[in-house]
Automatic annotation (TrEMBL):
InterPro entries: MFS, MFS_dom, MFS_trans_sf. This is Major facilitator transporter. It comes from Caballeronia calidae. GO terms for molecular function: transmembrane transporter activity. The chain crosses the membrane at residues 45-67, 74-93, 99-123, 135-153, 165-184, 212-231, 251-270, 277-296, 302-326, 338-357, 363-387. It comes from the Bacteria. SUPFAM superfamilies: MFS general substrate transporter (SSF103473). Residues 9-388 form the Major facilitator superfamily (MFS) profile domain. Keywords: Membrane, Transmembrane, Transmembrane helix. Pfam families: MFS_1 (PF07690). Signal peptide: none annotated.
């Protein structure tokens, strides 16, 4: 009976990940297009996406505080409320032709996305220690469905309310967020006493761990470089004369590549250890940059985007598994929220820097810049055994 409950919890979190991820996919698929139509200046066309990313960073610490004080269920329901809000506010912004109202909606969308990404940590509260890595990757499998559901939702609904393109799309996204809330209500988390919730080391003591700092750096680089290259790729393809249809197909395969490896990433982490999987992810990201440098044909861009998705999966899930090794149960929400704040905060830098670098120096420069953070994170992972030996000697 207990194993059935565990399986049901993981399944529900995976389904909720799919519904909620579709909400984010809608934003990425339509945000810049709508921004271009509503913005007072063409230079502000991508601002809705940047505000979405900023919302992710801003929400991580408050989400952790809510989860710590009131439990993960309350945090998740808060996230779903933000998901409904982004749909309704964005739809209102489209109907009223208000660029700034649409941007406010994107801020709520970023908050929703940030809380959704904590599902990967929340599943650790539902399974035994030895099953955490597999459960974590199983939850992320929901992203495969999200990558299909989000774009299809946009395609089916974008012209249902002429002349307000995508208004119905965001109303549908609000409905999907509500469905995610229904699914999440059935998740059973382990019970924690007040002593467990309020105990643990201070944050400064926790952050002195080289292993945790390395995990945070690896997660930051994996996510930031994925966002950095992916944001530039569609515009780079457009500048190279590649059709929009081919560009969209490349992004779709990129999203599939981001989440499809989750079917086996957890097993790989359990077998080979999180540091090796992180290194593999960083290697795939480096290969993605090499592919981008090797040519400007459709095949080169698609290959780069697919390798980039796989690299993100290994790097992000591997670093998340490392974070789970660096805190006790009573410290989990504090550590996880700080980790996500660092990771998602880096996306703001990548989001704003990517387009500017592409417009001034071109796609080749974007690919070259990606090597430096990847090399730094790989070096930190390689030094982990030495840090462990030094820590054992000092103890």
């Amino acid at each position: 009976m207990k194993s059935m409950r565990i399986d049901q919890n993981v399944l529900r979190l995976s389904m909720a990940q799919a519904f909620a991820g579709a909400n984010s996919a809608v934003v990425y698929a339509t945000g810049a297009i709508i921004g271009n139509e509503l913005a007072p200046s063409p230079s502000l066309a991508t601002m809705p996406i940047s505000i979405f990313v900023a919302g992710m960073a801003m929400a991580t610490i408050p989400a952790g505080i809510i989860a710590r004080r009131y439990g993960r269920r309350v945090a998740f329901m808060t996230g779903n409320a933000c998901g409904v809000a982004v749909g309704l506010l964005a739809a209102a912004g489209i109907l009223l032709a208000s660029f700034w109202l649409f941007c406010v909606g994107m801020l709520f969308g970023g908050a929703y996305a940030a809380i959704v990404l904590t599902f990967r940590f929340a599943v650790a509260d539902c399974v035994p220690l030895e099953k955490r890595a597999r459960a974590l990757s199983t939850v992320m499998v929901g992203g495969v469905l999200a990558g299909v559901l989000g774009p299809q939702l946009a395609n089916i609904t974008m012209n249902l309310w002429p002349p307000h393109a995508f208004a119905v799309t965001y109303i549908a996204a609000a409905v999907v967020a509500a469905l995610s809330a229904v699914v999440l209500r059935g998740v059973k988390f382990s019970f924690h006493t007040p002593e467990v919730v309020t105990g643990g080391r201070t944050l400064s003591e926790i952050l002195c761990q080289p292993r945790l700092l390395t995990a945070m750096l690896s997660g930051m680089v994996s996510y930031m470089m994925m966002n950095f290259l992916m944001t530039s790729a569609p515009l780079a393809m457009d500048l190279c004369g590649i059709t929009r249809a081919a560009s969209n197909m490349g992004i779709q395969w990129h999203i599939v590549a981001m989440y499809a490896p989750s079917f086996f990433t957890g097993r790989l982490i359990s077998r080979f250890g999180a540091p090796r999987i992180v290194l593999s992810g960083l290697a795939f990201i480096a290969l993605a940059a090499f592919a981008g440098l090797s040519g400007l044909d459709v095949a080169h861009f698609w290959t780069s985007l697919i390798l980039l998705g796989i690299g993100w999966n290994f790097g992000f899930l591997g670093s998340s598994a490392l974070v789970l090794e660096c805190h006790s149960p009573e410290e989990r929400t504090r550590v996880q929220s700080v980790n996500d704040f660092v990771v998602f905060g880096s996306l703001v830098i990548g989001s704003f820097a990517s387009g500017g670098l592409l417009s001034t120096h071109g796609w080749v420069a974007v690919c070259i810049v990606a090597f430096f953070p990847v090399a730094t994170a790989a070096l930190a992972i390689a030094l982990l055994p030495a840090w462990r030996v030094r820590g054992a000697q000092s103890a």
